[in-house]
Structure formats: C-alpha cells, structure tokens
Write a structure and sequence with these properties.
alpha+beta; 7 helices; five-stranded mixed β-sheet; five-stranded antiparallel β-sheet
Length: 297
C-alpha cells in the first residue's frame, strides 16, 4: 500500500467517498456522498513528497475536518512534525480562502435573487400543510418559498422550500452561526429552534420572537450568537424530539446549546397523540393537538 492509497482509505473510512488523489499539496474539491448534483462540498489536501506524506480532508456540508499522516506521532522526528504542521497550516489557509470565495459568490447571488422574489402567498401549499403564515418568506419564480439566512447585519444565504416540502440551501452560502429571525410581539423570552415551520408555529402560538437555526448542528453557534447579542435575555432552546432517530440528535444538540449559554430547554411532548407519522417538532405538536381537538369536537 502506498501513502496515497492509505490517505484515500482514510477518507473512505470517514464516509466521504473515494476521490482520485492528486498529491500536489493543493486543495481539491469533489462531490461526496450526500452532495446534490453539481455540488462539491468535500475537499482534500495531500502532499506525498518528503519523509512523512501527510494531508487533510473534510466536508463543508458536514462541518468536518480531519488531518492524516503516514506516521504515528510516536514515530515522528522533530522534522516530521514540523513538516506536518506546515502542511496542515497550508491546508487551513487554502480551505479558508476557498470557503471565503464560496461565501462571496453566494452573497452576490443573494443580492440578485432576494430582491426579485415576491412576498409569499398565504395559500402556498407548504404553508397550508404546516398550518402557518408566511412571516418573512418570499416566493421565487419556480413556486418555492425563499427563507432568508443571515446574521444580525446581512443575508448570507437562502433556504428554498418547494410546495411538496423539499428543501435545499443556496450552494456555497454561509450557514454556520446564521439564522432566520422571526419577530414576535413579546419582549421575552427569546426562542431558538431548528426549522422555519417550527419557528413560525412558536411565534404564532406564544407571541415570542424565535430564531431559526435550520438544523440541530447549528443550534449551538446560533445560541452563542443570540446570547452575545442579548447577554441578559431569557432564552429558551426549543429542540426537536428526535425519538425515532438513534441518539435523539435534536434533543441532544438542543440540550448542549442550552447548557452552553445558560438557557432553558423545551422539548415537545407527544403523549396521548397520534404517533403514526413519527412527529418530532413543535409544528407537529400543534397540528396533532388541533387534529385531536377537532376529533373531540
């Protein structure tokens, strides 16, 4: 086995596919498992020359990064360690430059697309199915809802939701630590949740402002951003109850975010309700309660 093939095996073992490795020390992007057609969210950097071939690889979509060396740390000489450090630092610089370029291209697309979208109609199929109002959602020319994603200053990306509920983000847009703010009528508490429909439901049911993080992995960075902006606010992390998924990632990530920023944690309780569709979030809870009330009436 060569160092190149060992490096490729390390990538495959992490579930990031089987790219053709070019050992030139430059960053290479490729389409990995789970990437949509045309997207290249996986990357690697590999240098084979020298006494210690080494590299790094990862996935922008998954927020995953891993370094690799042909020698274990206990076998490395000081020169080997210095060589690996230089390669890792070079990979980090290239990765950051590439990521910045991707974000810049996406931001330019946002500036063109978002103003051209019209306000979303209340009878959009997705909104009707979820039983929510449009809030800040807009409509693109293909009939998809467009949800803004950003920080406190600007829109950095967009989420597109098709009438049938299919979702995708703008390719290359900055998502990590970014959110969608849904203002409420009450000054407190501030709620943090995963999805847009969940956030809309929470605002409509409670009157509280809700910050939508879009996925469980983004709850912690968004929670930190909210706490930094509102250091003394009463904050509740409203997690998904992913009881149907091993490890319950929604509840686990929500609990970690709440503990990190000193917030409260709230999870939906589906006791006594119809579980046939495997409900997980507060929108599911609201719709199931409404259906139960209608049956009782």
């Amino acid at each position: 086995m060569t160092a190149t093939s060992d490096f490729a095996r390390a990538i495959a073992d992490e579930g990031l596919g089987d790219p053709m490795i070019i050992p030139d020390g430059r960053l290479h992007r490729y389409r990995g498992p789970g990437d949509k057609p045309g997207a290249k969210n996986c990357w690697y950097v590999f240098h084979e020359s020298g006494t210690t071939p080494a590299g790094a690889f990862g996935s922008w979509r998954l927020g995953f990064t891993q370094t690799w060396s042909s020698k274990g740390k206990d076998r490395m000489t000081p020169a080997d360690r210095a060589n690996v450090r230089r390669l890792v630092e070079s990979a980090k610089r290239q990765r950051e430059q590439e990521q910045a370029a991707r974000h810049a291209r996406a931001a330019q697309t946002v500036r063109m697309v978002w103003p051209a979208c019209s306000p979303a109609p209340a009878d959009h199929p997705y909104l009707l199915a979820k039983g929510i109002t449009p809030h800040c959602a807009r409509l693109d020319g293909l009939g998809s809802l467009v949800i803004p994603v950003g920080d406190w200053a600007t829109i950095t990306s967009m989420q597109f939701i098709r009438p049938d509920g299919g979702k995708r983000f703008l390719s290359g847009g900055r998502i990590y630590g970014c959110f969608c703010l849904l203002p409420g009528t009450k000054p407190a508490p501030i709620l943090i949740c995963e999805g847009f429909a969940t956030g809309a439901t929470l605002v409509e049911q409670t009157g509280s402002t809700c910050v939508v993080a879009f996925n469980a992995g983004n709850l912690l960075p968004v929670a930190k951003a909210v706490r930094a902006q509102h250091p003394k606010a009463d904050i509740i992390v409203c997690g998904d109850n992913d009881a149907w998924t091993e490890g319950n990632p929604g509840a686990t990530k929500a609990r970690a975010a709440a503990l990190e920023i000193g917030a409260q944690l709230l999870l939906p309780d589906f006791t006594g309700l119809d579980l046939s569709e495997k409900p997980t979030d507060f929108n599911d809870l609201a719709r199931l309660r409404n259906a139960s009330a209608r049956r009782a009436a």
